[in-house]
Amino acid sequence: MSRENVEVVRSIYSAWERGVSAREFIDADVEYVNPSYAVEPGVRRGRRVFAAIRDAYDDVAIAPQQFVDVGDDVVVVATITGTSHGAGVPISREHGYVWTIRDGRAVRFQWFHSGAEAFEAVGLPVPPEPEPGSGPGSGEQAQPDELPGPGELPGPGEQPEPGSGERA
């Protein structure tokens, strides 16, 4: 697993939060994958695709809650907020993202309507919901390394070792 990949993705969100370009962390020919249920499903290419969200929302903000290292991929669970352009309808919802990193740059980005979909996309079990009063917003930081990596999951019919920390 690569903590460096998580840092690349954290740097992207940090740049966007500061209102500056993240182009040094995103490949010029990045593959941007919209899910089948998106208004415009399919694959787009290039960094400019990321700017399209500002056409839909006047004040869009993405607040990452969790980063999970999955080898070349990094799963991000985030809250997206904004006000729709034109209609003025406010939104605030969870999204899930999967970033693929190669040679220190994002080469693929996939988005989903939930973190659960993002975890499923990389073959990880969906983590349990946090207890009320725990996790982000309660003073506790989400732990990115609590989930097992792809080679650490029990096989079919196997049970995790008691006390191994793996989630069933």
Structural class: alpha+beta
Mean pLDDT: 81
Cα separation of the termini:
21 Å
Helices and strands, in order, run as HEEHEEEEH
> Total number of helical segments?
3
**What's the number of extended β-strand segments?**
6
Largest sheet: 6 strands, mixed
Q: What's the gyration radius in Å?
A: 17 Å
Q: Reading side by side through the largest sheet, how are the strands ordered?
A: 2-1-6-5-4-3
**Which stretches of 5+ consecutive residues score pLDDT under 50?**
133-168
Helix content: 10-25%
- Based on Cα principal axes, name the global outline: globular
Strand content: 25-35%
What does it look like?
The structure is a single chain. The chain is of the alpha+beta class and 168 residues long. Helices cover 16% and strands 33% of the residues. The protein has 3 helices and 6 strands, in the order αββαββββα. It has a 6-stranded mixed sheet, with helices on both faces.
Itemize the secondary structure elements and their pairings.
Elements: H1 3-18, E1 26-34, E2 42-45, H2 53-56, E3 61-70, E4 73-83, E5 90-102, E6 105-112, H3 115-121
Parallel strand pairs: 1-6
Antiparallel strand pairs: 1-2, 3-4, 4-5, 5-6
Question: What brief labels describe this structure?
Answer:
globular, 168 residues, 6-stranded mixed sheet, alpha+beta, disordered C terminus
Quick summary of this structure?
The protein is an alpha+beta fold. The chain has three helices and six strands, in the order H-E-E-H-E-E-E-E-H.
